[in-house]
Predict the structure.
Amino acid sequence: AQRVTQPEKLLSVFKGAPVELKCNYSYSGSPELFWYVQYSRQRLQLLLRHISRESIKGFTADLNKGETSFHLKKPFAQEEDSAMYYCALLTGGGNKLTFGTGTQLKVEL
Amino acid sequence: EAGVAQSPRYKIIEKRQSVAFWCNPISGHATLYWYQQILGQGPKLLIQFQNNGVVDDSQLPKDRFSAERLKGVDSTLKIQPAKLEDSAVYLCASSLERAGGPLTQYFGPGTRLLVL
């Protein structure tokens, strides 16, 4: 069965420090992975997807099939990055997402 | 464009009572999803509709949960009777019809349910 693991419930960093939010997955098929973000008092929204290989708000994520990981990285954290981040795995042919438990990122001044 | 709408935003009921949630997806989005998010966990898909047909309801507790999307637009999710463990945020999301690639799911604000 598919599974997404986010080992850190809370990650606290100082402004300007590098950020890495960890995500590991388990899936027998070809994985498609996403990062979703929820800012305080806002809706859950898509941050980025691995197939686009894009950088959004300075964040990047590379799919490593050998390590079954999709870690989210940003070289310099900003205060506005403070939010809840969810890693998600797309499975099956019906656009079904399996979410991890989320990591709360707190950027301190 | 207007986002996914949900109501009510909050609901408090006693166990064994029934409750219903409503969702209106983004106009033109054929696919609609209901998720349950228990405190401290990620969203878990309960049911997925494509137009007015069910695509996946494998994680829906069918003895007490039901959902419908009769006209292929808005949808209701019902719990009858509710249990304490149903306390959660119920999220609705919608996306365009899948056509060969993963599609962005747009989420509503959620309905926070507390069962006492």
In short: The two ends of chain B are 37 Å apart (CA to CA).
